[in-house]
Amino acid sequence: MTLEFTTSYLEDSIAILRYYKMLGAQAIAQASDEALCTVLDEGSNSIAIIVKHMAGNMRSRWPDFLTTDGEKPDRDRDSEFVASALSRAEISALWEEGWDYVFEALEPLTEAELSRVVLIRGERHSVMQAINRQIAHYAYHVGQIVYLAKHFSHGQWRSLSVPRGKSADYNNRVMSGRASQR
Asked: CA-to-CA distance for 151 and 177, rounded, in angstroms?
């Protein structure tokens, strides 16, 4: 992730969320169709279930989040964890729809709105706290998606960050790029 310097909490939060969206999408793209719905054991979730849960959370949290509780009464959270045979296209659609809710809610916000009070499950949060809560939640689940996709790739995994043993090459490339920008 190339970090853009900013002192704007909102710009930084949106950039971080876009990074996690991209990271998850790249991991999902590397998973086979079979791997998308495979669980490691009966107590685990598949990539498809994690995506379904994240999309349900996003659909509940973000629409009208300044004026309604982030846990919408029509959300059936438990159903998000029920395995279902979803196609790659259905998983991708859920992924995109969920993230659309996030960015449609956050992009129009102003820094002045960060101290407003919003509710999640009846608990008071500042807008900033609600955003932080969701960043942590989404990072947690994207990490699970990456782990599962990598696990099921059977040695075909293409690193989403600096590959093992390539840190020096990466650091040299970054430093020489910065030197040429001066």
From this structure: 33
Any bridge partners for residue 125, and if so which? 118
Record the pTM.
0.89
Q: First CA to last CA across the chain, in angstroms?
A: 21
Token pair recorded at residue 131: 């955003």
pLDDT at 32 over 90: yes
Looking at residue 133, the DSSP 8-state letter turns out to be: H
Residue 125 dihedral angles phi and psi, to the nearest 5°: -135, 145
Q: What is the pLDDT confidence band of residue 164, given thresholds at 50, 70 and 90?
A: confident
Strand segments (E) across the chain: 117-120, 123-126
Sequence-separated (6 or more) residues with CB below 8 Å from residue 118: 65, 66, 70, 124, 125, 126, 127, 130
Q: 118 has which bridge partners?
A: 125
User: Please, what are the domains in the chain?
Assistant: 9-181 (1.20.120.450)
Alpha-carbon span 113 to 8, nearest angstrom: 13
Residue 118 phi/psi, 5-degree rounding, is: -125, 160
Task: Tell me how long the chain is.
Answer: 182
133 and 14 in contact (C-beta within 8 Å)?
no
Using CA atoms, how far apart are residues 141 and 148, in angstroms rounded to an integer?
11
